[in-house]
Design brief:
Layout: H1 3-24, H2 32-51, H3 59-86, H4 95-115, H5 123-145, H6 147-150, H7 155-158
């Protein structure tokens, strides 16, 4: 297997882990059921891609990916409108801002996976995949280290990190 193919599989494994962890931390969120599903669907889809990258050509996989991506895009637009109207400052201090970033990460990753069915990822798209795969973990590390950033968060957000 070529190095690019291995890297693509590792990126998918990282993203499956991220989406799984994101679902797990929803345990004490008021709308945990919704957000758990929002993260578990891409966790399963990306885990399948890490095991068998050619699955992105499968009709069922593509349909689930498209349906979930469409829902994430609708959610992104709704949250962006809400944030535009009501945000008080840094959107990462707003729960809706963090939810928005989660939906954007899902939509971007699902698009990268969907595009990989036609053309194997290489060059710019593979670089983008590596950056996107590392971004959530670097963000979580940054938030974990900077405790003052979490001070204004609701209690249910503070207790899971």
């Amino acid at each position: 297997m070529a190095m690019a193919g291995r890297l693509w599989r590792v990126c998918n494994l990282l993203m499956a882990a991220f989406f799984g962890l994101a679902a797990a931390v929803q345990v004490n969120d008021p709308d945990a059921g919704l957000w758990t599903v929002v993260y578990l669907v891409p966790a399963a889809l990306t885990l399948l891609v890490s095991i068998n990258p050619s699955i992105t050509g499968n009709g069922v996989w593509r349909s689930l990916c498209d349906l979930h991506s469409a829902g994430c895009i609708v959610g992104t637009v709704a949250l962006a409108c809400s944030l535009f109207a009501y945000a008080q400052g840094n959107i990462l201090h707003e729960e809706e801002g963090r939810e928005l970033f989660g939906l954007v990460i899902i939509a971007v990753w699902m698009r990268l996976c969907r595009c990989s069915a036609k053309n194997p990822l290489a060059g710019f798209r593979l670089t983008a995949a590596v950056v996107v795969a590392l971004f959530p973990f670097v963000s979580w590390l940054y938030i974990y280290v900077n405790k003052e950033m979490r001070e204004s968060w609701p209690t249910h957000c503070k207790t899971v990190i």
